[in-house]
């Protein structure tokens, strides 16, 4: 709650600063007002290498991230920030606010849209609500495996999608790994679609994810990530769905021990900038930022591969029941109608994705 109030007041103060600065023609941006540093944040600061001496006016930009400080996406964000700072000799500083300090994903995306927050790393699911075509890239069972997904994302199709969100006032910077998502719950092992019946499943704030859960016979409850643990604990929801690292680091495995490897979606993570913030920078600085984002993907994916294994081991050791399906065909069939519903206009594009080798 306190976090929310804090995030809201930062947003209000920041909006005021943005409006106040509107009449000015200068390119420079004043450092944004800072939230009170929490303990983690203080640790972060200590851990950072000393910043290179800035030459001239320093530009301070903010990046919002939902995950904890050592989560693979946060490490990717920090690598991005480090590269930008290094390549501009400290002239552009990007502060990474992890742990949803700036708010939950949907609220942060809204603020990025009107320039109150400069960058965020989010899941594609909530972003697709702002740019519907993005739903294509999170269709269930779209990619054959992780390699296939990376060929698509790092090729011309992925580039086109990054560009496509400019219409919604975002600049797509790069993709990060988010693995495959699986269902988990506190009631019973899910071994077939029939076992999903009647379960209350939390979903991201995404229409496609709601319909996916409905198609499997369960009842979807959209909810911000930060509220899921208590939702499971109090029985407001019976389950949710996520990849290994999120199942682990959110501690959901403690309160929902049945985890079924159905791999219904591979939802890419995406790093985006506010178009309003980018437009205030010179072309050269925009290029530095875009390149730094692309270059940060390597570290994020390495960290992801490590974390996936660690998290799997951790939740198995903790006694969670992991259900391996002989085949997920039954799940695939049940969710197939979503292709027409969410991507009916993009049949050729879907074929191109499927044909990507
Ligand atoms: C995680 C994503 C995060 C989402 C979260 C969720 O990394 O961005 O917020 O799932 O389910 O896998 O909301």
Kindly report the spatial arrangement of strands forming the biggest sheet.
Answer: 2-1-3-10-4
Strand composition percent: 15-25%
Query: Which radius of gyration do the C-alpha atoms yield?
Result: 20 Å
According to CATH, the homologous superfamily of the largest domain is: Bacterial extracellular solute-binding protein, family 7
Distance between the termini: 47 Å
| Helix content, binned percent | 40-55%
The dominant shape is globular
Q: Into how many domains do the coordinates divide?
A: 2
* CATH-defined architecture of the largest domain: 3-Layer(aba) Sandwich
Count the E strands.
11
The total count of helices amounts to: 16
Q: What can you tell me about this protein's structure?
A:
With 357 residues, the protein is α/β, with parallel strands linked by helices. The protein has 2 domains: 59-178 and 268-306, D-Maltodextrin-Binding Protein, domain 2; 181-266 and 319-355, Bacterial extracellular solute-binding protein, family 7 (D-Maltodextrin-Binding Protein, domain 2), CATH 3.40.190. 46% of the residues lie in helices and 17% in strands. The protein is built from 16 helices and 11 strands. β6 (200-203), α8 and β7 form a beta-alpha-beta unit. It binds beta-D-glucopyranuronic acid.
């Amino acid at each position: 709650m306190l976090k929310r109030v804090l995030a809201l007041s930062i947003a209000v103060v920041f909006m005021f600063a943005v409006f106040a600065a509107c009449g000015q023609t200068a390119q420079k941006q004043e450092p944004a007002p800072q939230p009170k540093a929490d303990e983690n944040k203080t640790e972060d600061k200590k851990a950072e290498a000393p910043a290179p001496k800035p030459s001239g006016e320093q530009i301070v930009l903010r990046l919002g991230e939902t995950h904890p400080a050592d989560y693979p996406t946060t490490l990717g964000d920090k690598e991005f920030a480090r590269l930008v700072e290094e390549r501009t000799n400290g002239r552009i500083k990007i502060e990474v606010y992890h742990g949803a300090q700036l708010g939950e994903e949907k609220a942060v995306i809204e603020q990025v849209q009107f320039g109150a927050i400069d960058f965020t790393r989010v899941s594609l699911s909530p972003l697709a609500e702002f740019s519907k075509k993005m739903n294509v890239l999170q269709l269930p069972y779209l990619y054959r495996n992780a390699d296939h997904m990376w060929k698509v994302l790092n090729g011309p199709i992925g580039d086109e999608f990054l560009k496509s969100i400019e219409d919604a006032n975002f600049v797509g910077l790069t993709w990060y790994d988010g693995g495959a998502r699986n269902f988990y719950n506190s009631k019973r092992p899910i071994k077939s679609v029939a076992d999903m019946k009647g379960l209350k499943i939390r979903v991201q704030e995404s229409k496609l994810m709601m319909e996916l859960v409905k198609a499997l016979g369960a009842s979807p409850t959209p909810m911000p990530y930060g509220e899921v643990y208590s939702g499971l604990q109090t029985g407001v929801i019976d389950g949710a769905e996520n990849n290994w690292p999120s199942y682990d680091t959110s501690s959901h495995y403690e309160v929902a021990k049945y985890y079924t490897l159905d791999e219904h979606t591979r939802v890419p993570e995406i790093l985006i900038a506010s178009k309003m913030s980018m437009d205030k920078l010179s072309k050269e600085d925009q290029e530095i930022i875009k390149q730094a984002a692309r270059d940060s993907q390597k570290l994020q994916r390495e960290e992801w591969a490590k974390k996936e294994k660690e998290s799997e081991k951790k939740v198995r050791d903790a006694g969670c029941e992991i259900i391996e399906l002989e085949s997920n065909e039954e799940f695939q069939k049940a969710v197939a109608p979503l292709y027409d519903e969410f991507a009916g206009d993009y049949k050729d594009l879907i074929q191109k994705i499927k044909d990507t080798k």
